[in-house]
Amino acid sequence: MMARRQPTPSAHGTEAVTPRTHRLSVRVSPEAARRWRAGLCFDAAPRIVEVSDDQLAAIEADRMLIVERL
Prior knowledge:
The protein is 13% helix and 41% strand. By secondary structure, it is mostly beta strands. A hairpin with a 6-residue loop joins strand 1 and strand 2.
């Protein structure tokens, strides 16, 4: 499971912005044994992960992955 990131300063430097994360259950479709996407490895067993917006977009765009938002 990914650790939550610390807040990062905003462009103005006065307020902190916490990066948004998404909690997912991800597994590979039956046609593939294992799949790497967004720096993470998935197989037939569901894996619960917390991902950033960019990782979420990459994972959901992959048709070989079965994604369930938690």
